[in-house]
Amino acid sequence: QVKLVESGGGLVQAGGSLRLSCEAFGRTFSSYVIGWFREAPGKEREWIVDIRWSGGSTSYADSVKGRFTISRDNARNRVYLQMNSLKPEDTAVYYCATRVPGSSYAYWGQGTQVTVSS
Question: How far apart are CA 82 and CA 47, in angstroms?
Fold first, then answer.
């Protein structure tokens, strides 16, 4: 069993930055993939980035590539999402989730709200 807790959301002006954190409790990440998703009002949940805990390889959606950076802290069992050059369209609830490679995302956090004002 894995419990994920996100933090770091808030209100920021367009062009600003925020760093989200996802901390895992329970089973360690060792072989997992950790992803960040977001869900804006009236829209479907959208995958935006993921990282393999072992090796650290990453993948980004085009909508955030060049502005967002995912990283991990093995010692603290945390994954971070650094978000720069934020736009109003980045406003959403952001979720972290984890899965075993080749499987669907099985564990989700509760989400953290990010609001970008114009």
Answer: 16
| Interval 5-37: pLDDT, tens | 999 999 999 999 999 999 998 876 666 899 999
Residue 85 and residue 106: Cα distance in Å, rounded? Answer: 31
Report the run of H or E that residue 73 belongs to, with start and end: strand 68-73
Q: Compute the distance between CA of residue 6 and CA of residue 25 in angstroms, rounded to an integer.
A: 12
Q: Report which secondary-structure segment, H or E, holds 20.
A: strand 18-26
Which tokens is 99 given? 């899965």
CA dist 114 and 18 (Å) reads 9
- How many CA within 13 A on the CB side of residue 59? 7
